[in-house]
């Protein structure tokens, strides 16, 4: 069996990179919110207690 090179659409590559960057920004925001105020979803948790 020979190795076959698959041609991946460049638009899909850039979309996946952008999606990953936005996901990492979300994780950084989550960690920042948890460090500063101690809640992952601020304001929601106290309403149900």
Unreliable spans are none
Helical fraction? 55-70%
Mean pLDDT: 82
Please state the CA-atom Rg, rounded to the nearest Å: 19 Å
How many structural units, i.e. domains? 1
C-alpha geometry = rod-shaped
- Elements, N to C (H/E): HH
The portion of residues forming beta strands comes to: under 5%
Number of helices: 2
**Structural class of the secondary elements?**
mainly alpha
* Largest sheet: number of strands, sense, barrel closure: none
Number of strands: 0
Gap between N and C termini, in Å? 62 Å
What does this structure look like?
The structure is a single chain. Helix content is about 65%, strand content about 0%. It has one domain (about 10-45). The longest helix has 28 residues, at about 10-35. With about 50 residues, the protein is mainly alpha-helical. It is rod-shaped. The mean pLDDT is about 80. It contains 2 helices and no strands. It has helices at about 10-35, 45.
Name the features.
rod-shaped
Summarize the SSE layout with pairings.
Layout: H1 10-37, H2 44-47
Give a quick summary of the entry:
This protein is mostly helical and 49 residues long.
């Amino acid at each position: 069996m020979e190795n076959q090179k698959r041609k991946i659409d460049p638009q899909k590559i850039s979309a996946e990179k952008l999606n990953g960057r936005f996901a990492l920004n979300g994780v950084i925001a989550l960690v920042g919110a948890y460090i500063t105020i101690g809640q992952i979803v601020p304001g929601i948790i106290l309403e149900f207690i």
